[in-house]
């Protein structure tokens, strides 16, 4: 018997399953995700499921929340955005300026018009001058040309020049989407470039691990739509792995639960991802994947992602209310499990006769940095202070400039805070016991002491009372997240006016004259490590069933090897002048006067591209389906006038397996 090995790297845990289509999940394992080197956590989980004598493996699948978490938490390497034929005002649209943050933007003359004709020559001299100035400051370049989906010539030329001049990876917008809307294409391309370094480290580490164990099976990566691509394809287009984890979880949940119509909610350490399964298939978001406030052009499952997980950071919001997320913190119980010296510091803080706002909080390095010299001087100082291990925040932030520089290191994904989280609350209450309970109790005493002063509630100084408060917050926010996703599905995205009533409905309180109730019309398949702690109660408050199937905690890893390879290509036909039709294909414009000829050319072009992409993405055998949408309007003097046509080719097939 030959097996399939599924792997998922989450924010807190890395999961692995051994699976066969005939028997289902044969073996499963979990290990802590090692943010400084993701391959270490993968190696531990894989070792547990394979054992001393690895069985024959015909396929390896990898899903990851890496891209999703990086965008939710605002992490990623520095990149340069190259805009060809756009003015600076383009940054004011599609949240592009916010996504760019402090990274540089290069504006270069060139680009094309809606017909694919050149609107201005590409200013190669200006491009190379800017590239030379920035080469040592950025990890990658993101190139978006005006109407590049109609004619990608300038993007391709710019990519060649940048790669030759700097040696840095270059992402072109036309490689990621065929849709119009230049600024959203630019946003998608920018995010892709920012993710390249992280995905290379992950995939490279997994490839090295498989080679060390003598596994030669193909390595596939789950895309955001639940389909699979080869590792090589994922390395070129990492932005397509946005929502990879949630997509794999929906595929896995369908396998595990046997349900075809349900709401699937995957709660991890950092995020909760909610999607809908209809007729056994995940719903796709026609507008493109949205993570946080960024609406990309990545085709992915329609998912509602919120920054809520077992390791969500506890904070006060703008109304001074206690809330969880969206950022992740390392649970104190986990920190002490890995760094026992933390216990002594917590005890010291608790023994002080006075309190500090940063009591019970630490900072630690999140991942390795090969060359710290790339950091600005003040950031490098903080980085070096953390070289010996976790450091109490109150001590760290007393040092000059440390607070601001620490924030910047956290934003870059190099450093993370440790604080009291729902995982700690579960340890205090005896609901979870895999890490250090003593640290969780000390953290509850410290944070409870602080919050009791703010809320004038002495009961919060009791660690179990405080832990119950945090678990209640997690349960309530879980119910609100499910409700928000359901409202959006029903076309009711704006819940602002009803927010107080909705919060009261899921609060679990029985007092008050107004006692609203809400009910979900679908069961909830809850997966992820914290699901059993929160979802039975959260779903009960919403009047629906919580289905938590066997192996729910490793659903993502199962989904990583249960999907198909699917590639889709669109070719557009437009009008040029009164009579001429232009097919906008990857090989360049094709002009004709006859609609039938244009459609025939578009079909061949779309089918050729889709087949080639599917084979390159790892499909063994490929089936092609075609869809055509032709838009006509009535003429003034009778008859019909052609406006536009879109030919879509979908190529699908099972991944090629090792012999």
Account of the 3D structure:
The protein is α/β, with parallel strands linked by helices and 659 residues long. The chain is built from 20 helices and 29 strands. A 6-stranded mixed beta sheet has the order 3-2-1-4-9-10, with helices on both faces. Strands 11, 12, 13, 16, 23 and 24 form a 6-stranded mixed beta sheet that branches. Helix 1 (38-50) packs across helix 6, helix 14 packs across helix 15 (437-455) and helix 15 (437-455) packs across helix 16 (463-489). The longest helix has 31 residues, at 182-212. The protein is globular, with a radius of gyration of 26 Å. The two termini are 12 Å apart. 52% of the residues are buried.
**N-to-C span:** 12 Å
Instruction: Give the helix tally.
Output: 20
* Rounded average pLDDT: 90
- In terms of DSSP E residues, the strand content is 15-25%
Largest beta-sheet characterization: 6 strands, mixed
Structural class, from secondary structure content? alpha/beta
Tell me roughly what share of residues is in helical segments.
Answer: 25-40%
Would you count the extended β strands for me? 29
Strand order, sheet with most strands = 3-2-1-4-9-10
The whole-angstrom Rg is 26 Å
Which labels suit this protein?
six-stranded mixed β-sheet; globular; 659 residues; 20 helices; alpha/beta; 29 strands
Mind sketching the topology for me?
Blueprint: E1 3-9, E2 13-20, E3 24-32, H1 38-50, E4 57-64, H2 66-73, E5 79-84, H3 96-100, E6 105-108, H4 124-134, E7 140-145, H5 153-166, E8 170-172, H6 182-212, E9 219-222, E10 228-230, H7 231-236, H8 244-257, E11 262-267, E12 272-278, E13 281-282, E14 290-291, E15 294-295, E16 303-306, E17 312-316, E18 322-328, E19 330-331, H9 332-338, H10 342-351, E20 362-365, H11 377-385, E21 391-392, H12 393-396, H13 402-411, E22 415-419, H14 422-428, H15 437-455, H16 463-489, H17 499-505, E23 524-527, H18 531-541, E24 546-547, H19 555-562, E25 565-576, E26 580-585, E27 588-592, H20 595-616, E28 623-634, E29 640-653
Parallel strand pairs: 1-4, 4-9, 5-6, 5-7, 7-8, 11-23, 19-22, 23-24
Antiparallel strand pairs: 1-2, 2-3, 9-10, 11-12, 12-13, 12-16, 14-15, 17-18, 20-21, 20-22, 25-26, 25-29, 26-27, 28-29
């Amino acid at each position: 018997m030959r097996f399939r090995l599924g792997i998922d790297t989450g924010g807190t845990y890395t999961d692995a399953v051994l699976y066969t289509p005939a028997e289902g999940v044969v073996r499963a394992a979990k290990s802590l995700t090692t943010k400084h080197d993701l391959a270490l956590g993968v190696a531990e989980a894989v070792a547990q499921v394979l054992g001393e004598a690895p069985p024959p493996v015909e396929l390896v699948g990898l899903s990851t929340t890496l891209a999703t978490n990086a965008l939710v938490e605002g992490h990623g390497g520095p990149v340069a955005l190259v805009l060809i034929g756009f003015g600076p005002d383009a940054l004011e649209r599609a949240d592009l300026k916010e996504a760019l943050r402090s990274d540089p933007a290069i504006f270069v003359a060139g680009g094309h018009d809606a017909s694919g004709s050149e609107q201005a020559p590409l200013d190669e001299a200006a491009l190379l001058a800017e590239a030379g100035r920035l080469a040592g400051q950025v990890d990658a370049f993101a190139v978006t040309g005006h109407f590049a989906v109609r004619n990608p010539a300038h993007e391709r030329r710019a990519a060649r020049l940048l790669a030759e001049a700097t040696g840095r990876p270059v992402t072109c917008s036309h490689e990621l989407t065929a849709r119009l809307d230049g600024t959203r294409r630019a946003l998608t391309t920018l995010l892709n470039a920012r993710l390249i370094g992280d995905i290379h480290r992950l995939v490279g580490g997994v490839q090295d691990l498989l080679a060390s164990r003598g596994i030669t099976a193909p390595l596939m990566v789950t895309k955001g739509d639940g389909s699979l691509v080869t590792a090589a394809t994922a390395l070129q287009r990492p932005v397509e792995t946005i929502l990879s984890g949630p997509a794999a979880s929906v595929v896995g949940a369908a396998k595990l639960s046997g349900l075809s119509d349900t709401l699937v909610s995957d709660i991890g350490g950092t995020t909760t991802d909610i999607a809908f399964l209809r007729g056994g298939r995940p719903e796709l978001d026609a507008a493109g994947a949205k993570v946080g406030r960024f609406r990309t052009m990545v085709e992915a499952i329609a998912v509602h992602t919120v920054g809520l997980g077992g390791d969500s950071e506890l904070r006060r919001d703008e109304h001074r209310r206690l809330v969880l997320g969206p950022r992740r913190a390392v649970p104190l119980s986990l920190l002490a499990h890995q760094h026992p010296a933390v216990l002594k510091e917590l005890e010291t803080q608790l023994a002080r006769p006075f309190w500090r706002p940063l009591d019970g909080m630490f900072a630690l390095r999140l991942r390795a940095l090969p060359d710290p010299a790339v950091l600005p001087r003040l950031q490098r100082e903080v980085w070096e202070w953390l070289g010996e291990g976790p450091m109490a925040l109150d001590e760290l932030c007393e040092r000059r400039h440390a607070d601001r520089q620490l924030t910047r290191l956290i934003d870059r994904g190099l450093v993370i805070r440790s604080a009291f989280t729902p995982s700690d609350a579960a340890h205090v209450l005896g609901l979870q016991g895999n890490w250090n309970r003593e640290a969780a109790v000390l953290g509850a005493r410290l944070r409870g002491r602080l919050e009791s002063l703010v809320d004038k509630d002495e009961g919060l100084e009791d660690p179990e009372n405080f832990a119950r408060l945090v678990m209640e917050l997690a349960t309530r926010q879980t119910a609100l997240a499910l409700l928000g996703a359901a409202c959006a599905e029903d076309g009711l995205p704006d819940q602002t006016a009803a927010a107080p009533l909705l919060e009261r409905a899921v609060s679990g309180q029985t007092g008050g004259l107004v006692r609203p109730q809400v009910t979900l019309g679908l069961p909830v398949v809850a997966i992820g490590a914290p699901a059993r702690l929160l979802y039975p109660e959260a779903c009960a408050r919403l009047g629906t069933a919580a289905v938590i199937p066997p192996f729910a905690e490793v659903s993502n890893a199962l989904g990583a090897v249960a999907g198909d390879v699917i590639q889709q290509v669109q070719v557009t036909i437009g009008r040029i002048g009164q009579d001429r039709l232009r097919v906008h294909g990857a090989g360049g414009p094709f002009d004709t006067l006859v609609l039938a000829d244009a459609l025939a050319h578009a079909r061949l072009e779309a089918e050729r591209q889709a087949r080639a992409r599917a084979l390159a993405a790892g499909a063994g055998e490929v089936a092609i389906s075609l869809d055509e949408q032709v838009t006509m309007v009535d003429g003034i003097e009778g008859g019909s006038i052609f406006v536009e046509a879109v030919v879509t080719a979908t190529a699908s097939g099972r991944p090629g397996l090792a012999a």
